[in-house]
Amino acid sequence: MSRPAAAARRTHKGEYIETDTGNKISRKSHIDGKQHIMLGGRTVVMAGVQMRGDLCRVAEKSSDGGAEKEGPTTAIAVGSVDVEIMVQRGTIISTNSVLRPPMRLSRGQMTCYPMRMGDNIFIGPGSHISAASISSHVYIGANCVLSPFCVIKESCKILPNTVVPPHMIVPPGSIVAGRPGRIIGEVGDGWGQGGGGGEGEEWVEGGDLRPLVRSIK
Amino acid sequence: MAAPWANTYYACPCSELSAAAPPNVSNGGTPLELPGSFDNGEEGSTFDPHNPRANYSLYPLDNLLYCDECDAIRCPRCWIEEVINWYCPSCMFEVPTSAIKSDGNRCSRNCYNCPLCTSPLTISSVASPRPVEDSLKPSDAARPQESYLLQCQYCDWTSLDVGIQLDRPTKITEQLVRLRKSKDTKTDPISVSNREETFNNLTNFYKEELQGSTESQTPFGNSPYNSPANLARIMSLYGGVSHTALKKSREKPQPMREASSHSQGLLVYTADKSDAEEEILQRLKELGWNGTTTGEQRQMAPVNNDARFLGQLWPVATALRTRRGRRCRSCRQFLTRPDPKMGSIRYKIRLLALNFIPRLSLKPLNAIPPPSNPAFRLTLDDSPQPLLQPFTPLQYVLTIRNPIFEKIKVSLATPDTTPGKVASKVTILCPSFDVGPAGDIWDEALGSSTTTPSAANDGGRKAAMASLTGSTTDTDRQPEAGKIWEKTRNSTSVILEIVPGSLKPPSRIVTLTKQEREEQAPRQDDDRLEIAVYVRVQWETHEEGPEAGLGKRDAERKMPSGEAKVAKELAYWCVLDVGKIADV
Amino acid sequence: MAASNPSSDYFSSRPSIRTRPSPSVGGAGGPLSPRSPRTPLLSRSINAQFGSPGSFRTEPEDQVVYELGARHLSAGFAGESRPRCILRFDPDNGARVGDYRVYEPFHQKPIRKVENYEAWGQDYELYRSNLKRLDLGLVEDRLERAVRTAHSEHLQLDSKTRKAVLAVPSLLPTPLLDVALKVIFHHFPQPPSITLLTTPILACVGAGLRHALVVDIGWEETVITVVGEYKEIFQRRSVRAGKMLSKAMAKTLEHGMHGESRSDEQFVDFQFAEDVTERVGWCRPRSKPEEKSSTQLRIPLPGGFPHETTSVSFENLSDPAEEVFFSSCVTTNDQDDEDLPVHHLAHRVLLAVPLELRAICLSRVVVTGGVSQLPGLKQRLLQELAGLSETRGWDPVHSYGSAAAARTKALQQRKSNLNMRPVAPTTPMDEENPQVTFSPAKKPIQDSIPHSERLQDDVKDPVTLKAEREAKKGQQEVIRGDIRGVETVGAWAAASLVAGLRVKGVHEIERDDFLKHGHWDGGAII
Fold first, then answer.
1. Number of independent structural domains in chain A
2. Mutate to test the interface with C, among B56, B80, B106, B300 (most CBs of C within 10 A)
3. Which residue ranges make up each domain of chain B?
4. Is residue A65, in this structure, part of any structural domain at all?
5. Record: contact C105-A161, CB cut-off 8 A
6. Local confidence band at C484 (pLDDT 50, 70, 90 cut-offs)
7. C104 touches chain A (CB under 8 A)
8. Which InterPro entries does this chain map to (chain A) (predicted)?
9. Closest listed residue to residue C485, CA positions, set C362, C374, C372, C390
10. pLDDT, tens digit, 9 for 90 and up, residues A87-96
């Protein structure tokens, strides 16, 4: 529940800043609007990653109550600040990925909606994520585009170079590929089940990513 | 690639192709003295991963299940699927069984896909163009000003392209059905629904005919006509068709007429006149290539099967998906069974092969740097896997990991040259060995006294520590024939020596015929060096307790020692992907 | 339909299709037994003529209908006008589970370079009728995967067992039929029986006809069948079919792209050629229009840069069909028997059947098969047939040489004879036994029957009445002689129609018999 900027524990001058909860944030990442981003812990943000927390709903402070109601009801409010990007534990965001909250033109105004992400999500390098939500144990390959407002449910696998079209809902356990992305199959029953193993073998797609997080230095 | 060991494929022994054992394994003899390689002199007994058939029996390990009643690997060919629920992937609504077939296995709510690109369609509102004379007619003011359309946000197709405009943003299916019906009445010679109409006409016609043939005889309930033999004889007299011929005719025979009009399903064209074809040619000329539909678009849904032009495409209702349980084909027990509750991703039963059969993984010895799991590439500019140079001996570490709680004896066998066009030489330096039982990682770390007394003599502690810390033993060690390379508590590694063959076929004096040349032509993946290894596993288990899955650990522990043990055996082909051979 | 106890009330009130009438309904129809709100009398009586008296269909169960072709498998439910899925065989289906290279954006299909015609498109076909170099095991594997996909993704069957109907091309090689039956029988839910139907008959049924000249232009060969009374009477084949067409299209495209000079090498791959054939290929009419329209079509090239196109004139796109099906450059003398142009083949087939049937079939030309969708093809075929019947008539002798003069004389004579004879109204029924005229007073026939088996000499004899009615209907109906084409709904839809009407198939293979004895003993031979 800590924000990257706050109380960063600088252990050594490595590439990563490690926070109290075990988040590792690359010094080479570009994070805007930190107060709108929440990282759950043991999450890695690698070099070149852009997180656009600044694209948040413009709070109309002076406006009347009616305008407040028009805003998205899905916004997650922590304290008095809206959280635009919420990431749970054990997620890895690889190099040069872009995370920007989805937005759409509504009544002549661009409105941003929050983006939620679950546990143990792997986002491959160079991906562009604008999904409305990504559930736990999702594996996203390299160079994917998750268009605004798509929803990825649990245990899905997005193959590299996929473009998930806007508003697409991917049901649990699907494999998505293609441009535009289509459901091309289902993950095996053993998805995410590592069953132990030696060094390097415990990293399984859709499995527990903690060992991988640990290994990134 | 789903896992680091995903470059290993496992062949389910259910097909005759993958069930074939190498000759000297199946012919008996003590398996422990099995040589590491054998001549593949006997045709057909080795498994060739390059055979196109092999693709149909090889699976990644996480796609395989294991039946603990039959003690056998189960693959999609030898399990039975049982649908637990049907749901729409877009609205996640569970569809009751009764409505599935009538809706064509498609969502009957508001979920539609783009007929061009399959992306989901969204409903957007458009302000309907106000007629100019609107102001003169005050009565029109009451009419709703907005109309709706379906829009694809990926390829910008809208339902307006095919002339669909909706009045309401809800009950889309109903509105579309109505629109399609009203479109039908328009006289379009190449209308896509002609076929349905003809089909329905024909069905009605045949139904009437069949009914008509029986009506006349129902009054004679007790007449000799009721007996089929009599009737057939009589009919053969009048129709001039023999009894056997009568039986042979597929349709309802004698009294049936031919359809004679369009209302009976007869569609006629003559040599000079055919509206439909002329219309098609005309449109083809006008619209050109970009106005026609692709085969994929036509086959996406039955509703678009006959759509030749883009303008004939219809929004496609989202196809339902299913959640399925899987049963063993021979003993019918559930192998996997998801929680019947929608939205839950839990399993009630899940017998995964990876918890039952030993897992093989191949790593280059002395690889610098050790190749990481390709699935978890963190940067884009990671260099691709280097190509293998032909005729250069390479050494690989083959690790066999035991997931069960019994000590297993493993014997490996592989043809000494790989079958197929590229002959690579393979030698397993130590073909048979033991692998210790699986257990808690802490058992391992704390010393192997509590659960695995038999593994203690293998220097379990040291190996366990090594496996925990991830440090490898000294690198100058030389691989030796007949010796195990490395051993931890539940895994054993041996060395594999591989000499990749050349992609070029040996030169010949005789020129090849066309047909031979075609057979010689390299196929895709011929440059991929894959080694088929026949793995034979033997272990002993207690009579009552089935061999331990992960969940059965406690039962296993409580089992008193010195009970009657049952020998079990499992054998399967496993294909290890080494890499691509360079074409030099 | 008052139920005797509350528990059965629940079941009888449900409009469930699964309710099966209890066996006693047929006999006594006791007050307790009827459960189903629908009386089984109708369905039983439809069936009773041909089934044994005791057996009647229990319920309107749904059947699964498959159509197997060399290039595709269609599957769906009986009684529906379209299959739920049409699965094409292509090299991408053959990937391993977990091998996703197919979905990479610039994925190249694993096509082997094709040098001879034999191998053209062989990765896209399930089987070929030349079984010599065909791996039947691979066919089984591929078919098994296709059936599994159809079941789990498109039909989404529950575990209820359903009968199956399989439509196959006539003279499908028996080993292949065996494989197909094996796959479907073994597949879950295992059908208790499979009814076999052949495509020419189905095309005829799907056109609403009893007799037809079915021209099935398929993938490997064009099969022309004379169907009379729903039976295949005469059949001939030609290799001029879809495969040759797509090959010819590849050549045309190649010429368009690279000029005439380089015809040796193959640049146009199968998929592209097929795509072009399907989308913009057409067939020009027999009489060429004077003005040549110079419409050019721009066709994007596959695999290349997104906007790279080639330009082909619209006229040229009709060349392949012209060349393959109606090539006029080669005389029929030089042609192999299996390599006849389609119209010549049709002509030859018609010549081989009796005159009466020929006349009927001529006005019932049914063109079916994948290529029949080519615009203009059906009409062209009729035009060519008309042309042939004009120039050659219906004489099996192609050239009389020096005897030509004698023949014309004889012909003239025959013509005058023909004119003298009044044209008798005929019905479809009487052509095989033309002496029978339909009248209840027709005694001589009955006289030939032993007395014990003689029918009631009742005027209201239903069969006679029916026959008479039919004869009347037939008189106005039978159109014969003039060349006419009839559209068909296609083999799958016709199979679905037949199964939906619950007509009992003749070639029905029971699962147990098949498993015990194999196809040869278990079912009839097609």
1. 1
2. B56
3. 4-61+356-376+384-580, 86-127+144-188
4. no
5. yes
6. confident
7. yes
8. DCTN5 (IPR047125), Trimer_LpxA-like_sf (IPR011004)
9. C362
10. 988 899 999 9
